[in-house]
Amino acid sequence: MTAYEKTCLIRGDGGRAVRAVLDRIGDTWSLLVVATLDGERLRFSELQQRVSGISQRMLTRTVRQLERDGLVSRTSYGEVPPRVEYELTPLGRTLLGPAVALAEWAVAHNRDVDASRASYDER
Amino acid sequence: MTAYEKTCLIRGDGGRAVRAVLDRIGDTWSLLVVATLDGERLRFSELQQRVSGISQRMLTRTVRQLERDGLVSRTSYGEVPPRVEYELTPLGRTLLGPAVALAEWAVAHNRDVDASRASYDER
DNA sequence: CAGGATCCGACATGATACTG
DNA sequence: CAGTATCATGTCGGATCCTG
After folding, report:
1. How far is the CA of B6 from the C1' of D20 (A)?
2. Which of A37, A117, B30, B46 is disulfide-compatible with B25, CB 3.0–4.6 A?
């Protein structure tokens, strides 16, 4: 792929496509929730336990948005006490590829970035 | 790659690696600026023209952070009027791979997401 | 158990005006 | 030209309390 093709792909339509995707999964929790649901069907409380540090409010908001975007499906059983389970949709699973690519970049290069920051901040 | 390996990669260390990356490029402009600099060395004003809609202030902040993170290099020629050029560093270029993967996902699936949103919002 | 409602502080972004 | 300074606004995320 040429540089021109890449830049067109990312910047296409004024960058609207990429911005749309980042608006969806660029927040603090969405990608972590999606990754956590990979291959598993989890209840709300289980999800909260596995995504360490997420508040109840943010988990609620995150799964709502993921559900709205069609990446996660929500199943509520009409029981008392309530039981609600979440899982990835087929569409949600397709996101794992790019997400893994990003994660691989992170683990491969975060040290370089941190080093660069440190040397920049010295000045 | 198994689901377990993926989830570990993304969620590893409490998701710190992915969060770090998203903190850097998950904002509105960083990824667009990086993509715009792909294969080109541009002056501040050229960059602002090509990244449509970015304000002067946000471009300044964005390139500063990208420079600090070692993804972009800044060259200031001591002239009057000032001339400053930006280009990707080798590290910055490595980000283009994951970025393209994300962009491809976006153009491939944004319609599905929009459709899901529309049907969700009907209710 | 799975949330909804409310309040709050921090930060991201933008508009505008100014400067070396 | 390439910024900096200041002000305003909106959103993100957390803490806390309440409920069917």
Report:
1. 38
2. B30
